[in-house]
Amino acid sequence: TPKEPLYTFPVPQDRKQFPVENRLLESSIQDFNCFARYISQFRSAEFFDSVADFHVLIFLAALDIVPLREFMGSLLESIKIGDRDGAREWSYLDPWSNLQALVQAS
What whole-number distance in Å separates Cα of residue 17 and Cα of residue 37? Predict the structure, then answer.
């Protein structure tokens, strides 16, 4: 970890950040419960802000509970170009809706 991190994705200052992957510290372990707590900090209107985080995207791509990798192309493109409306449209697709249902049930 660098002494002064350089962020290429927006970092919400008023929210708890999603942990960095491949860290063995207890406070930095990525799992579904950690994701559920993270994503619950955001309203649905803040979807872009919640997923425009490199570590969240890596987690979503590797998620086994609801396989999202094959559906993420348009989301990644929307984040790349800063298209909030495109990202919101992606959030209406079934894979994300299924994941949201699991988050709400946890």
Answer: 10
Model confidence, pTM: 0.79
Look at residue 21 and give its three-state secondary structure: coil
Cα separation of 48 and 65, whole Å? 22
* Burial group, residue 53, by CB count within 10 angstroms (0-12, 13-18, 19+): buried
Q: If you compute the radius of gyration of the chain from its CA atoms, what whole number of angstroms results?
A: 13
Give dist(CA 68, CA 97) in Å, integer. 11
Q: How many residues does the chain have?
A: 106
Q: What is the pLDDT along the chain (106 residues), one digit of tens a residue?
A: 556 665 555 556 677 777 776 666 656 678 899 899 999 999 989 999 999 999 999 999 999 989 999 999 999 999 999 999 999 999 999 999 999 999 999 8
